[in-house]
Amino acid sequence: MPKRILIIGGGYVGLYTALKLQRGLRPGEAEVTVVNPENYMVYRPLLPEVASGTLEPRHAVVPLRAVLRKARFLSGALTALDTSTSTATVRPIAGPELTLDYDELVLALGATSKLLPVPGLVENGVGFNSLAEAAHLRDHVLRQLEIASATTDPKLRRRALTFVFVGGGYTGVEAIAELQDMAIDVLEGYPDVDRSEMRWILVEAMDRILGTVSADLAELATTELTARGIDIRTGTLLESAEDGVLQLSDGAKLASDTLVWVAGTRPQPILGELGLPVDDRGRLVVDDTMRVNGHPNIWSAGDCAAVPDPEQGGTCPPTAQHAVRQAQQLGDNLLLTLRGHAVKPFRYNSRGEFVTLGKNKAVGEVLGHKVDGSLAWALRRGYYATQIPTWNRTARVLCDWLVGMPFGHDVVNFGSREEPRGAFKEAAPKK
């Protein structure tokens, strides 16, 4: 009877583990089931370019059903786990809950935004972890430019043109850089708005931005961003976000309708409800082969697991590079387990890092060498184009980039897609 491998999560770890199994399993050796709320995987390094409009949103995702043709896919979410009977309870997109049996279980649930108890944050902020958030922010920035162009009220203009991002890690830096670059590029279409009126503010609690990269690389990025007029406030916290006013710990009060919260992530809360060992950050405790401690048939990797890093010490950083390599090793270990062989520990040294800062702008470190400007931008694009799964997606991404290079950003706000029935309801007869 074929072994049953159940993968919960369709992000980097879930997808790449399933792909490894799909290529390595012998006929009849195992049945693979992948469970994920969405039927696609978001290639998150490309989200900043989705936000700036240089990449079509559909091209930054990988359709799970299309690439996992040898696996069963189920659109749903994990709600419970019974390790004594090796069963998982899943709530599908519709209908009653399902009970799925497994011989080997992979928990690849990823992470979600880490929100702090800041008054007004939940009501007025937006994150930058999903395709919907990236697309929304592009439309939102263009809408703020429309508001500023349509009014002569100085307070309203200043409020519309103040953009505040909280969190100076990879995501925050790339998001503010790409969106500011887009906003400047489209100003030709807004003759009533001057570049000097826009305020882009990056708030970071630590003493520098990009705390997980080398100090030299962070300094390169800081120099580029400040030269473009982005106000970087380190050692600063957001204290409140109520009534359209953002109160910062340095005493500043900013009237703004744009608050982007990118101050870290945390594992999905359900991990703490499964009866499995977790660390003080809520991540599953695993050994260097990515087995969950005390559970030989449960595995985990990526953002939701504390995978030991023997090369640098501590645990692996939550980067796409590490998640992909962990998934590939996890897939190999599952194949070894099925065939009665000893599994292997995870080992990986980062090949380099890139931070996009807008069109033709980036900083990076490749094999110990610092690069910036157009070269870093081109190297970053080349790397990610070759890493996104399937040649179909690679071709689509490259076409978007090549077609867009000679042209500027489109001044098109699709904000109405957030309420697609708005025009339909307006057409209804008035009572």
Q: In brief, what are we looking at here?
A:
Helices cover 32% and strands 24% of the residues.
Task: Give an overview in words.
The protein is of the alpha/beta class. The protein has 2 domains: 3-113 and 266-350, FAD/NAD(P)-binding domain (3-Layer(bba) Sandwich), CATH 3.50.50; 125-263, FAD/NAD(P)-binding domain, CATH 3.50.50. It is built from 12 helices and 23 strands. The protein has helices at 12-24, 47-52, 64-67, 121-124, 131-150, 154-160, 170-185, 215-227, 320-338, 373-387, 391-404, 422-426, and strands spanning 3-8, 30-36, 40-42, 61-63, 72-82, 87-92, 98-101, 104-107, 111-113, 162-166, 199-204, 231-234, 238-242, 245-248, 253-255, 258-261, 265-267, 284-285, 298-300, 305-306, 352-356, 362-366, 369-372. The strands form 7 sheets. Strands 7-6-5-2-1-8-19 form a 7-stranded mixed β-sheet, with helices on one face. A 4-stranded parallel β-sheet has the order 12-11-10-16. The chain has a 3-stranded antiparallel β-sheet with strand order 13-14-15. Strand 22 and strand 23 form a beta hairpin. The mean pLDDT is 92.
> pLDDT below 50 for ≥5 consecutive residues: which ranges?
none
The N- to C-terminal Cα distance equals 65 Å
- CATH fold-level assignment of the largest domain: FAD/NAD(P)-binding domain
Query: What does the average pLDDT come to?
Result: 92
* Individual helix count: 12
Largest sheet: 7 strands, mixed
Structural class: alpha/beta
CA-based shape: globular
Question: What is the CATH architecture term of the largest domain?
Answer: 3-Layer(bba) Sandwich
Counted up, domains total 2
Instruction: Tell me the name of the CATH class of the largest domain.
Output: Alpha Beta
Number of strands: 23
The whole-angstrom Rg is 23 Å
Proportion in helices: 25-40%
Strand order of the largest sheet: 7-6-5-2-1-8-19
- DSSP strand content: 15-25%
